[in-house]
Amino acid sequence: MIESIKNFSSDFFVTGDPLIYGADVSIVLVMVAIIFVLTYFKKWKWLWSEWLTTVDHKKIGIMYLIASLLMLFRGGVDAILMRTQLAFPNMDFLPSDKYNEIFTTHGTIMILFMAMPLMFALFNMVVPLQIGARDVAYPFLNAVSFWTFFFGAMLFNLSFVIGGSPDAGWLSYAPLSETQFSEGPGQNYYIWGIQISGIGSLASGINFLVTILKMRAPGMKLMKMPMFSWSVLSSCIIIIFAFPILTVTLGLLFIDRYFGANFFTLAGGGNPMYYVNLIWMWGHPEVYLVVLPAFGVFSEVVATFSKKKIFGYKSMVFALLSISLLSFFTWVHHFFTMADYKVDAFFAITTMAIAIPTGVKVFNWMFTMFRGRIQMKPPMLWTIAFIPTFLVGGATGVMLAVAPADFQYHNSYFLIAHFHQVLIGGVVFGFFSGIYYWWPKIFGFSLNEKLGLWAFWLWNIGFYVTFMPQYALGFMGMPRRVSTYGWDMGWAPLNFISTIGAFLMGAGFIFQVWQIVYSIKHRNKEGAADPWDGRTLEWSIPSPPPEYNFAIIPKVSEQDDWWYKKQKGLTKVKEDYKPIHMPKNSGIPFIMGGFWFITGFGLTFEWTWMGIIGLIGVATSIVVRHLDNDTDYYIPVDEIERTEARIGGTR
Amino acid sequence: MSQSTAGKIDHHNEEEHHDTSSIKIFGFWIFLISDLILFSVLFATYVVLRTRYSGGPTGAELFEVPIFVAETFILLTSSFTSGLATLGLQQGKVKTVINWLIVTVVLGIAFVGLEVTEFITLVEEGATISTSAFLSAFYVLVGTHGLHVSAGIIWMISTIFQLSRYGITEETNRKTQVVSLYWHFLDVVWIFIFTVVYLLGVM
Ligand code: HEM
Ligand SMILES: [Cu+2]
């Protein structure tokens, strides 16, 4: 009996590695600390009723933000571990099997559990405010999205200490990811972590699409809508078409592993190459859907801090929509080396074609700045840093798109440098810019600029120091996904420089955390309602906005309506309040997320009974919700009056 | 969050320019688009793997014409009866709506039952999901549709329950419309399965 428990737990828990024991201890300590603080300050009820059950898009946005910053930390630690291992030749810090696990979790976490939720944080914080709505179209579903993402991410991260991490790369190509080559729970963690959070992503895509199409304030024609909302719209279109592909792909992989089917196996007539096609049919649109909202942020920021309307509004919209469309026709560029040359030619051309709308956008931003009264505020700094970074990333992307040349760069450090250049320079800088820009709106106080400046320079210098040498390493023949190399390769100096850069970016992140903590302690609430002299509707209401956002729904007449109203002195509105219809809080999304977690955990360990219990729980939650007819309430006029008087609303 | 409920207020009194029901139905259409893509990928998978028998049985050897014709007939009829239910909705007759929905549910259960027996027979004949890529694709495509139908059945029962409790309200009206929209959608998907999998399979 004792023997069997011992055996079980040595399989169940990952053992024998000081790193992992360290993680175990810190996880337990953090949990104890959280439980202690919540109990000591009697905050359990507050946590439940204000956060875990909330359906308020602003609070959901904040929860997305916190979770994605945690994931940035985790993914960043992975990155630092890898760069440490690669700093010198023949290092013995991470053995090759650990290295495989870490690049897999790094890539997966950074894209799916950092970039995606950071993007959803911005969607939630900004879109309803920007289009003059009181909430998203489906507030309850929005909470479901968050909790499925959250529990999916937790499930994925659990693999580090229980059962073992996946190690087949961030896209888990078959047949490597099949049972034959990747036995055990690691690969199942990958499948279920992504699958569960993918449900949430798809739901968010639908939710924000409908919100934007159906909930705009009266008078806001689509062609008067702020550019960020346009970028969200195009991103949602991609989500709606791309995520079902991912769901099926991972579903089939799981069926192969669990039921012994033969979709992507080597025997039984399976077709592994079909997996590679499917996963990139989702994967390429995926990277575009995370970068489009970043483009949206830049458009807002450039206009605000140049004090000018965005240049070429229509061409911007056109560029966004054509990128959404084109992004579905380029997937083969990820495996030119495995496809037919005629197919390659087609996909090389579509890939290069994407550079055109992207170029249009860059020119529009530059023309907006041209002769503008530019203010170098933090959001603007990140935007300006983005432009050259993204240009280099784009140029190297076009180099990779030249199919015959790609046979040289493929799977080398040239590729690693390229995609980090667009992912960090484009997505991460863009989202940072957005967070700095909208932070005062959501939290009601501003962030300390001096600490922010440190973070900015550390990130930027660190970025170039890390990734420029990697282009050269690529040319020198260093392949990706190698855990070590010899002195004789001549790669040592550049790798060492690259590692220094990674630590600089790590320091940049620490400055950002410090900046946030510092600014929370020394709250500077001055002028938080409209600190940047903004142009769009979100700046017309108090910061943080009341739960109903707009006491009176604005009537829109112009593009950049708030700016227009300020210029014309039309900012006063009649305080003629009506009762406001609001959704009620609900615990179901959180509970349903918990049941998804149980389902995922059970299926990961192939404990069918547990999977079934989880699924029954999920189904029950849905039915209970379907039967509930008491889901909303009204805020009476006198309460609105009191709130508005307190927060100094309706100017 | 202050949850002071002022009770339901007369609808003319409030500032509500978005019609909740139409927004929900619109969103459901968008969901159907993504569900359609899900099925398209499964169809593509089936087409890619269709001839990879790997020494196992082919469609022509396995599929029984009377069974899949019966399945098709039952599902088409159920689509018709769910349409009758929505007609009853427009006439405001709860009883009619409920009765037709019950008929639909019964037909749905018959369909799922037939499919399950079909699968069991196949497995007993030795044609399992691991036999060949063709069979993997077959089971997953047809089975996913079957799971959708089963979910639709539960959903319809829950709707019937609400109709009998609250009668026809804005809420139950919408819920009935949405569920029957879903049902029609599954019917359309089945027509493709019928053609691509079964008809082309036995030919
Ligand atoms: C913070 C600075 C970062 C550093 C120092 C860094 C470093 C690395 C390293 C060393 C690898 C492994 C290369 C290899 O051995 O093949 C890697 C892979 C990867 N990184 Fe990063 N990374 C960073 C940020 C990011 C971000 C922000 C993203 C995405 C938004 C990202 C996405 C990826 C992906 C997708 C892979 C490929 C994983 C795979 O091969 O399966 N990284 N990164
Ligand atoms: Cu791509």
> Could you say what the CATH architecture of the largest domain in chain A is?
Up-down Bundle
| Level-2 CATH architecture of chain B | Up-down Bundle
Count of individual helical segments of chain A: 20
Provide the residue-averaged pLDDT of chain A.
93
Rg from alpha-carbon coordinates of chain A: 25 Å
**In sequence order, what are the helices and strands of chain A, one letter per element?**
HHHHHHHHHHHHHHHHHEHHEH
What is the CATH topology descriptor of chain B?
Four Helix Bundle (Hemerythrin (Met), subunit A)
Query: Which hetero ligands occur in this complex?
Result: protoporphyrin IX containing FE, copper (II) ion
The SSE string of chain B, one letter per element, is HHHHHH
Q: What distance lies between the first and last C-alpha atoms of chain A, to the nearest angstrom?
A: 72 Å
Give the helix level of chain B as a range of percent.
Answer: over 70%
Uncertain spans of chain A: none
Specify the biggest β-sheet of chain A: 2 strands, antiparallel
- Give the averaged pLDDT of chain B, no decimals: 90
- Give the CATH H-level superfamily of the largest domain in chain A: Cytochrome c oxidase-like, subunit I domain
The strands making up the biggest β-sheet of chain A line up spatially as 1-2
Bin the helical content of chain A. Answer: 55-70%
Largest sheet composition of chain B: none
CATH class of chain B: Mainly Alpha
Explain what the structure shows.
The complex is a heterodimer of chains A (651) and B (203). Chain A is 68% helix and 1% strand. With 651 residues, chain A is mainly alpha-helical. Chain A is globular. Chain B has 203 residues and is mainly α. Chain B has one domain (39-202): Up-down Bundle (Four Helix Bundle (Hemerythrin (Met), subunit A)), CATH 1.20.120. Chain B has helices at 20-49, 59-62, 65-91, 94-124, 133-166, 170-202. At the A-B interface, α7, α8, α19 and β2 of A face α1 and α5 of B. The complex binds protoporphyrin IX containing FE and copper (II) ion.
